[in-house]
Amino acid sequence: MDLFSDPISWTEKLNPIVVQYQERKHPLAYQNPYQLMIMVILSAQDSDANINKIAPALFNRFPDFESLVPATPEDLFPYISGVRHFQMKTEWILETAQMIKTDANIPLTMDTLTQLKGIGRKSANVIMKELQIKPAVGIVVDLHVLRVAPRIGLIPATQDGNKAEKLLMQLLPRDIWEAIGMCISFLGREICRPTNPKCSICPINQYCLYYNN
């Protein structure tokens, strides 16, 4: 089976996972845009489960950006010391609070979000997707997407998230950008695991380069 000469478009091939996952909320258990932004910053190189675990106490003490403005690193440390690179992330969060000052000022464009410390294109895409900012200007590319997209044959292997995103944006139509990144991510979390992937139950296994080789 020559997947690359297959006349069926990748939009059609990926549709089963879009149907399966497009309504799924991000695993970060946020309640509002402020919490989402802080949790996205904290989740870099850490697990969503760990961030969800520390979040209730953190947000009980700091319920909004206004409450973070007068905070010091020592105020924040007890609540996020279980997070990887917490000292650096504390600096990012407090600097962001000083810039934003109030939840009403949370930026909602790619350019303004990526000007903030700790927020790159991946994080900005997550925030904009979850807050349903349209039209989508990019595709969420997390560690799961970096693994799964090359495995199924979408793009060449790369560890550069921005490069992977650019390749996906060139390959896929804009109308599925908003959904497809997290759909691939959920596939990677649940089925296309790093080891022992559950290929037999994958809804797109007939088009998968890894499965068919």
Automatic annotation (TrEMBL):
Pfam families: EndIII_4Fe-2S, HhH-GPD. Gene3D superfamilies: Helix-hairpin-Helix base-excision DNA repair enzymes (C-terminal) (1.10.1670.10), Hypothetical protein, domain 2 (1.10.340.30). Signal peptide: none annotated. One of its GO terms (molecular function) is endonuclease activity. Residues 42-190 form the HhH-GPD domain. The keyword Flavoprotein does not apply. SUPFAM superfamilies: DNA-glycosylase (SSF48150). Its cofactor is [4Fe-4S] cluster. PROSITE patterns: ENDONUCLEASE_III_1. InterPro entries: DNA_glycosylase (IPR011257), Endonuclease3_FeS-loop_motif (IPR003651), Endouclease-III_FeS-bd_BS (IPR004035), HhH-GPD_domain (IPR003265), HhH_base_excis_C (IPR023170). Keywords: 4Fe-4S, DNA damage, DNA repair, Endonuclease, Glycosidase, Hydrolase, Iron, Iron-sulfur, Metal-binding, Nuclease. Belongs to the Nth/MutY family. This is Endonuclease III.
